[in-house]
Amino acid sequence: MSIRGLKKKQPKTFKVKIITVDAEMEFSCEMKWKGKDLFDLVCRALGLRETWFFGLQYTIKGMCTWLKMDKKVLDQEIPKEDPISFHFLAKFYPEKVEEELLQEITQHLFFLQVKKQILDEEIYCSPEATVLLASYAVQAKYGDYDPNFHEPGFLAHDELLPKRVLRQYQLTAEMWEEKITAWYAEHRGIARDEAEMNYLKIAQDLEMYGVNYFPIAQNKNHTDLLLGVDAKGIHIYSINNRFSPNKSFEWSAIRNISYSEKELTIKPLDKKAEVFKFFSSQLKVNKLIFQLCIGNHDLFMRRRKVDSIEIQQMKAQAKEEKARKKMENQRLAREKQLREEAERAKEELERRLFQLEDEARQANEALLRSQEAAELLAEKAQIAEEEAKLLAQNAAEAEQERQRLEITALKTKEEKRLMEQKMREAELIAVKLVKESDRRAKEAEHLKQDLHEAREAERKAKQKLLDITRPNYPHVAKYPQYSPADTREANFDKGSIKLDLKDIDLKRLSFEIERERLDYLEKSRKFEDRLKELKSEIHALKLEEKQSGLYS
């Protein structure tokens, strides 16, 4: 067989991309594959056996549609792209998650999808419930809370609360994290699958959980109602209220559902009851509603029948798996508890060891301080003994000094008496000297007056002498027989005798005055020196009196 023949026999394929809530996968599909073939391939790849809850969803012309299982993939109105994208999502929801979700993978996929719907605000949840759900989501992701490992800020990059709740309350990210962590710390010991199941058990009680909403109208012109399809039946809501339905039809009370073009009819089981008719905007919407009604009704009836062999086996396996996991979790919890107890015991021993070491260190320090204190006390005792000896010696010296001061005080008193007597004598001498000085001053004044009078008499005598000698000069020229020189000498001799006598008296008088003045100055100087000596002696005596009083 040629290579060309082999190539012709190879089937043609096309690529598809399957997007789950937390992953993406790509597959090569044969051209003839139906929707069920692709769906089974995805379920096998995921290891999923509870396939009746899920479907493959795609978007065409802005409308979400589910891939039909009984038709070829390429024959359906799917997007023209390569690869073709499908979302693997839960199409139908269980009434009681704890009883119906058997596999862990099924439970995990539901948990991720419901969590996304709550965060995207497709399912309304109160702020208090969102915080509790967020704590279970954190427990499922991070395990048990450990304050040493889960430090503040460890949830900064996790999306845990709807934006509506964040806008409603003016709280910081740190405050929200604190509230979530307070609940999270109470979930200690809960495994991941158990935390996810607790999340779903709370979520299934929300009013919008598992409901697919479609706009409808009671006539062809107005769209003023919402039709909701869920696991329990069909519900009619007002356009502004998705929580409380105006009218509900449980699956057990519905006899028939049919549609014709844009009209859809619900016939109750009670034939007397009114038939409910409504209109949708498109025929595709009626088809989608019809498919969801059939699928939910089939599951509703299936839950109320005896389980098939496959379901019984799956429940048995799930029960065994849960029991095994429970035992495993108990064993792990016990081991963890023992390990924690061992760690606490180790920490206690380390703490006790550290405490004993600290006590030993403190005892050694106390011993060293005691030794130092003993040495210090010995030194202080020696110093005290030396100080006692020194004090005794100082006391003896003080006693000797006291005796000496007493003797000195006696001498000082005698010297003081003598000094006072000398001072009185000095004062008397000073008075006498002052009087003598006054007398001498008066005598000097009289002598100065006498000297002035003598000098005045001398000036007059000289004037007279000049008056006598001046007229004789012309007569000398007339009488040449007489020698002028002889006449002059004769007359001058007479005047010289008078002048010499007068000069001798003046010189003597001046000498006596000068001698008396010098004697007076010498006596004054000696008196001043004596006064200074007396002042110095008096000052020294006063200092000795003060010192003797201080010593006393």
TrEMBL record:
Residue ranges occupied by any FERM domain in the UniProt entry: 14-304
PROSITE patterns per the UniProt record, alphabetical: FERM_2, FERM_3
Keyword Cell membrane: yes
Entry-linked InterPro entries: Band_41_domain (IPR019749), ERM (IPR011174), ERM_C_dom (IPR011259), ERM_FERM_C (IPR041789), ERM_helical (IPR046810), Ez/rad/moesin-like (IPR000798), FERM/acyl-CoA-bd_prot_sf (IPR014352), FERM_2 (IPR035963)
Coiled coil segments of this chain: 311-464, 517-544
Keywords linked to the UniProt accession: Cell membrane, Cell projection, Coiled coil, Membrane
First and last residue of the signal peptide: none
GO CC, any one term: cell projection
Binding residues for a 1,2-diacyl-sn-glycero-3-phospho-(1D-myo-inositol): 68-71, 287
SMART domains with a match to the protein in the record: B41 (SM00295), FERM_C (SM01196)
Record's keyword annotation contains Coiled coil: yes
GO molecular function per UniProt: actin binding
Protein location: Cell membrane; Cell projection
Membrane topology label: Peripheral membrane protein
Principal localisation: membrane
Cross-referenced PANTHER family: MERLIN/MOESIN/EZRIN/RADIXIN
Protein name: MERL protein
Origin species: Mionectes macconnelli (McConnell's flycatcher)
Gene (UniProt): Nf2_1
